Amino acid sequence: MAQPALAQQAPQAAQADATTNAADSGEIVVTAAKRSENLQSVPISVSAIGGEALSKSRITSVDSLVNKVANLQLTSTVGDNTPIFALRGVSMSDFSLNQSSPVATYYDEVYKGNFAFLGIALYDIERVEVLRGPQGTLYGKNTTGGAVNLISRDAKLGETSGYANFGYGNYNRFDANAAINVPLGEKAALRVAGTYSKADGWFKNVNPGFPDLASTDEWGIRGTLKLEPSDRLKITLRASHSFQNPQNYGIYAQPEAVNRPGLSQFQIDSNVPAKRRAVTTSVALTLNYDVSDTLAVTSITSYDKGSLFFKEDTDGIRDQVLEVPYFDRASQFAQDLRLTSNTGGPFDFILGAYFNREKVFNETTLEVLNGTDVDGDGFVTAADCAAGLPVACKVRNQFDQVKKSFALYTDLKYKLTDALTLRGGLRYTHDDGKQTGFKSDALGVDDSFVANLIPLSDLSFKQNNVSGKIGIDYKLASGDLLYASVSRGYRAPSFNAQAFFTPTELGVAKAEQVTAFEAGAKTQFWDRRITLNMAAFYYTYKNQQFINVNPADASQQLLNIPKSELYGAEAELTVRANDSFTFHGGLGLLSTKIKEGIVSGVNVAGNRLSNAPSLTFNASFDWTMVQGNFGSISLHPEVAYQSSQFFENINIPRLRQTSYALFGGHLDWNSSDGRYSISAWARNLGNKFYFTSRIDLTGFGLDYNHIGNPRMYGVTAGVKF
């Protein structure tokens, strides 16, 4: 029986590797618009990176995507594998573990909102797609900033195949990852993939008897069962589990003369040995059914749960000035149901319904000067907390949070002519949130109760929103695409997780809204050997949510910046000069300005938004230097640059991160039959020292800083079968 035409267009992951396609034919297949389409035909600003390119560049966590995508940034305030993304300056200026980013992360079309769900993402990956701008008419969850789509390799029917890779690097790093695909009869297949990594800490601890920080210790496993009982029905069941238990990150405290006397850049004097622990479990069922040759139904049902614990040595020194244990436990159920048409005529649509329920338990403790003998009796006890509150206290808050989101969305396109297409979409969203059982207590160093600071409290919100998009695109006779659009994105209200000392810190931040104007072009020249994609944008940004940390006492409030303005552009260039040489480059330009806002009594109008460098640039090339019966040797150098930026909205000069560039790459040997490979790789080859997050804590005598990873290098060997 012939396969229905729509099966080729159904919203499922394309099988071809994005980078391989680009190298062979100049075509990259993506599912950014919920149909398998050539990237050059999608009127959206989207960057696509193939899984093979990610693996060879040692992009093993989503954090490192910022070196590959123009105008994508992150802060790492809560550590590796839990990035806080910023895209075109739209960011979550909050490190609370109960929050969800305005740049959504999806694993195989399943939204992962809470930090506890992220786990180990980048293994056995088909490709990554980064969509810029508000999302809501195509995606289950609405966002103001964009979406990062991680698409794993699918199980393949009728094929027995697999691979295994093993690597060793500096800091005694050992990596292993593998996958196997086996057929289960003619209509089913199973794919199992796993990863394991372990490395010593690179932040060397000079405190005797205490471990080095920022180590690696993690593993993950994923199973994918694919069933095709008929030509019209495709069923995919995915289940995954991951575990991480490294030494936690370290804090680089300034000024160095006070907090780091005699220490080199990658040394620390820390008294906190607690390991970081993150556990995730995920199950997702995807059904694709072709109702007819022109109509398909897609259902994605998912359940996630996870927990995240780490104790941060916030002061970054041996003395017990400020230390913060964080704990987050979360679960999520989500259902996305949509109807997709592919009539072959002028009109097509996507009609969807989405439901998400997220439940979170959050507990955070501020351990303030816990070595201080306030009453002078020679001992540090609960009596010292009572006498010096909050000095010598553990100030602990905890709460439960439930958020529900229900939405109806549609995305429409109508071909006015063979060349001109009108597009539009609407979304209705109802969000309901409850924060219950919030309390904050002052405890002694022995965890005994001393005082209640914030009585048992409940907060809630309900929000209805209508957002949407309208656009037009024009396909030239050459096949190049011009497009323009206006869209509006929405992000639900949020609860403050960082209230500790008084009930006035409790609150609900207003919903965010971004109105985005965008125009772009997707072009190819020289027999499709040159691909140049460009986009320009202008945003109005209302009520950006951010956490404001009072530097004097570490009290924190969740606030809104009433109005900001953002504009800029991106350009991505690929040049396939010949079969042996390909160049890739990306350029991002960005200007941000706060139009209205007060932070800690300071008028911040005219300031730049956080996490918004004005220039980002990345470049690489793939050069097959030698090829023969012995195989091929290829060189792949890379560079990523970003200009200066701030990590907070007051734009404190001393907390400005200056511009920097990171260099890396890999040198590969591949056997002539493609079965065997050896790769020597390096990242941050120049051992550049730079900050990835900064907070003013001068009340505790320090500036709080995260720093980027130092030079990493190693060798990886692989086999395919």
From TrEMBL:
Pfam family, one: TonB_dep_Rec_b-barrel
Cell compartments where the protein resides: Cell outer membrane
Location of the TonB-dependent receptor plug domain: 39-147
Gene3D superfamilies, per the entry: TonB-dependent receptor, beta-barrel domain
Assigned keywords, A-Z: Cell outer membrane, Ion transport, Iron, Iron transport, Membrane, Receptor, Signal, TonB box, Transmembrane, Transmembrane beta strand, Transport
CDD domains membership: ligand_gated_channel
Keyword RNA-binding among record annotations: no
TonB-dependent receptor-like beta-barrel domain: residues covered: 241-685
Ranges in coiled-coil conformation: none
Bilayer topology: Multi-pass membrane protein
Residue ranges annotated as motif TonB C-terminal box: 704-721
GO cellular component terms, semicolon-separated: cell outer membrane
Keyword Transport: yes
An example Gene Ontology biological process: iron ion transport
UniProt similarity note: Belongs to the TonB-dependent receptor family.
PANTHER family on file: FERRICHROME IRON RECEPTOR-RELATED (PTHR32552), TONB-DEPENDENT OUTER MEMBRANE RECEPTOR (PTHR32552:SF81)
Entry protein name: TonB-dependent receptor
Source organism: Novosphingobium sediminis
Record lineage: Bacteria, Pseudomonadati, Pseudomonadota, Alphaproteobacteria, Sphingomonadales
